[in-house]
Amino acid sequence: MDGAVALGLRQNAAQFSLLVAVNALVGGMLGQERTVLPLLGERVFGLRAYTAGLSFVLVFGLAKAATNYFAGTLSDRCGRKPVLIAGWLVAVPISPLLIWAPAWAWVIAANVLLGIGQGLTWSTTVVMKIDLVGPSRRGLAMGLNEAAGYGAVALTAMVTGYLAQYHGLRPAPFLLGIAFAAIGLGLSARFVKETHGHAKFEAACHETRADLHGQLTNRDVFLQTSFREPALSSASQAGLVNNLNDGLAWGLFPLLFAGAGLPVGRIGVLAALYPAVWGAGQLFTGALSDRWGRKWMIAFGMWLQAMALAGIAMSHSFAAWAAAAAALGAGTAMVYPTLLAAIGDVAHPTWRARAVGTYRLWRDGGFAVGALVAGLVADLLGVRAAIWAVAALTAASGLVVAVRMYEPHRPKEHAHG
């Protein structure tokens, strides 16, 4: 098997491109909710408390975070492809549940399934791309993966906004999700190939640190990634805070914009602008981190996000919100693929999937933390106060990276491939 394996983006272009397309469909499943679901909770199910309205973000974050962890362990044990297919099978009932939900509890159930499905599918496409490309193009690979996923989030958020404006909040916006799930399952089952052999091949020539050798237990991997290893643990906390502010954007921004009198179509444009810049920006930021390194790309990205959130909290017009949303997307683009690449840099190939799973446990736990923090502060002090609070947390997270993280990627040590 090893003799037939080659690492590199060019050498695995066909499979890599297929996985990019699959992850775009994964992103589309998330995007169908970004504009419509907060409005559905308020206008159809009569939710008034922000904490109650953010419950769908909370359960999504908890389900996805837990699933991310187990997805890494399962993909090391059973292979990547079975985990990817399982994720798409979980995703199939989500859109029908949202279309026919007679009560908010059904929406909550759909978002538990969404979290599980996203944890299995997105985690696995990340690990498979890291397997394929090898060390020298890891940032570019993650940039392409996340650009496809969040580009699809943005496009779907915008399209569903206009569908909702002209055809109602249900069922039209969620018909897209039915198509995404069917196509994603078909592509994954029929055309995606197993990549576990690539990770084993890379492990044979991986330079090993004494504390990060290839025989770490699951407990050791969790502790190193979460707390002990400076680069891994710094990345984990930054990922949590990044998705904390994404949960805020998902759950509260549409309500802030609607409260200012914007129509659903324009709310959809604003909801799409942030992930659109985020998605497109990753085409450049991931590759730049291969050349310049990871640490300062992450720190400055967190600080740019904090400034953008402050801009949203201070603004009252569509144009100002659009500029701040674009800045938020740019900051997130600097951070998102770079954090994943940093995990791949430090983790040993034999337990890299588990390290990615642990990192994504913390990162997507940020959705749940964001739902609680933003909901409670918004109920007590208002939506703008919640945005200010998250901006402060994001600035502090960038400071942790600046102080604690060393540079995990040294470009001159890797040949181009």
Task: Give a description of the structure.
There is one protein chain. The chain is built from 17 helices and no strands. Helix content is 80%, strand content 0%. It has helices at 13-34, 36-43, 50-53, 55-78, 80-91, 94-100, 104-133, 138-167, 172-190, 196-203, 218-228, 230-259, 264-292, 295-314, 318-346, 352-381, 383-404. The model is unreliable at 412-417 (pLDDT under 50). The chain has 417 residues and is an all-alpha fold. It has one domain (8-195, 216-413): Growth Hormone, Chain: A, CATH 1.20.1250.20.
Per CATH, the superfamily is MFS general substrate transporter like domains
Oligomer: single chain
The percent of residues in helical segments reads over 70%
Sequence stretches where pLDDT stays below 50 over 5 or more residues = 412-417
| Percentage of residues in strands | under 5%
Overall 3D geometry? globular
Q: Using the 3D structure, state the CATH architecture.
A: Up-down Bundle
CATH class: Mainly Alpha
Keywords: Cell membrane, Membrane, Transmembrane, Transmembrane helix, Transport
Membrane topology: Multi-pass membrane protein
Transmembrane segments: 12-30, 50-71, 83-100, 106-127, 147-166, 172-192, 296-314, 320-340, 361-381, 387-406
Protein name: MFS transporter
